[in-house]
Amino acid sequence: MNVVLSPNALHGTVQVPSSKSIGHRDLICAALAEGESIVENISPSQDIEATCRILCTLGAVIEKISSDQPGRAAYRIQGGLHKRNLPLRADCSESGSTLRFLIPVGILSGNTITFQGRGRLAQRPLEPYYGIFRQRDIHYQTTGRSLPLTVCGDLTPGRYALPGDVSSQFFTGLLLTLPLIHGDSLLCSTTPLESASYVDMTLSCLQQHGVFIDKERDGSYHIQGHQQYRPGRYTVEGDYSQAAFWLAAGMLGKYIRCTGLRRNSLQGDEVILSLIRDMGGRIDDTEAVHAFPSQLRGRTIDVEDCPDLVPILAVLATFSTGMTHIIHAGRVRFKECDRLHAIAAELNAIGAAIQEEPEGLVIHGVHQLSGGRVSGWNDHRIAMALAVASQRCTGNLVIEGAECVRKSYPDFWQDFKKLGGICRQEG
Ligand SMILES: O=C(O)C1=C[C@@H](OP(=O)(O)O)[C@@H](O)[C@H](O)C1
Ligand SMILES: C=C(OP(=O)(O)O)C(=O)O
């Protein structure tokens, strides 16, 4: 699906979807608990559905209960993993979190399981797990670099060492499962841990579900075995990674108010509030989070701990005065697409001035963009960032492959229209 966006300043109130990252974690913890849990305020998306599907394959019973709030659902989960007699298949769709969180869960279940995926997921790195499998005699087989991947074996207690600069999702996968095995483990990073705030989010979710990990420092965790997840009722808070698009839209458009966000959240992407403020933007978060149109100034932004903000930060920087330098962004090349290349190529095609570096972007501000045809690169965050930029185009902007927002935010285009965006399907 291609969408045609006519330039128009967005304004109004939007309830942001709930956190995809916390949603994955709460669903997995609930599926690992014996007994019934309810996870409320989930924003269903392609990624969340992939996680639910695989948890069901592994033995959990999950019922989706629709909510009176549009775009939200509660999930009733009867937890517990089962060993089946047949080899299992797990379709992760395009979700890196689902794949990397559920590989250790699949092994823990005692099944032989083949993980599959689509789009870029088949090439996204899994080597840190392969190193561990080889050390611990966990059988694995893969035809290409990554997927399909068949695994089976035993998760045994002991020392787990892996690099910290590929993806924090390997740490989360092991932290979710090692507390359940029959002995203690040490999980440590052989290089400084990047995206560390996501691992802290994991520790906090585990704690809420009754599992405790002793963090020595970022990248070093002592994990007691023989623990059990506690079933219960959990509510997922609003998503700062998604709010970032609307807050940026408020900076460049008229005014936007985001509801559903928790202050002092464990989401690293809450940093978007201070990043915008540091660029000179006016954000008021006394009641909900309000973004007021502001002239931003370029600066250096280190995204080591907030990689998902890169596409929208590139848009903000494009309309800022002076130069912005986005640094520590090398890993962003291994997401749903090479995001450094994609956002630079698409914004430059319509008049931006962005230079790619191996691990970052140098962005010189411009007054406006021209509009034209751009690609969403089958990447939700690229498509949503381009949609925000359309407000400041002089002509229509056509975004090709706009359906990719379903990965995390299926209602994005509806919300865009509710905020005054002029959007129609091409053809
Ligand atoms: O743990 C998580 O929920 C996530 C961790 C991050 O990945 P990396 O650790 O690979 O940077 C982030 O980019 C991803 O969207 C979600
Ligand atoms: C990279 C993302 O997710 P995942 O790694 O789970 O595919 C994302 O949502 O931007």
TrEMBL record:
Catalyzed reactions per annotation: 3-phosphoshikimate + phosphoenolpyruvate = 5-O-(1-carboxyvinyl)-3-phosphoshikimate + phosphate
Pathway where it operates: Metabolic intermediate biosynthesis; chorismate biosynthesis; chorismate from D-erythrose 4-phosphate and phosphoenolpyruvate: step 6/7
Enolpyruvate transferase domain: residues covered: 7-415
Binding site for phosphoenolpyruvate: 20, 96, 124, 169, 339, 381, 407
Domain of life: Bacteria
BP terms from Gene Ontology: amino acid biosynthetic process; aromatic amino acid family biosynthetic process; chorismate biosynthetic process
Entry GO terms, CC: cytoplasm
One matching Pfam family: EPSP_synthase
Annotated 3-phosphoshikimate binding sites: 20-21, 25, 167-169, 195, 308, 335
Subcellular location: Cytoplasm
The EC number(s) this enzyme carries: 2.5.1.19
Keywords carried by this UniProt record: Amino-acid biosynthesis, Aromatic amino acid biosynthesis, Cytoplasm, Transferase
InterPro entries, per database record: Enolpyruvate_Tfrase_dom (IPR001986), Enolpyruvate_Tfrase_sf (IPR036968), EPSP_synthase (IPR006264), EPSP_synthase_CS (IPR023193), RNA3'P_cycl/enolpyr_Trfase_a/b (IPR013792)
MF GO annotations: 3-phosphoshikimate 1-carboxyvinyltransferase activity
Function description: Catalyzes the transfer of the enolpyruvyl moiety of phosphoenolpyruvate (PEP) to the 5-hydroxyl of shikimate-3-phosphate (S3P) to produce enolpyruvyl shikimate-3-phosphate and inorganic phosphate.
Subunit organization: Monomer.
Name of the protein this chain belongs to: 3-phosphoshikimate 1-carboxyvinyltransferase
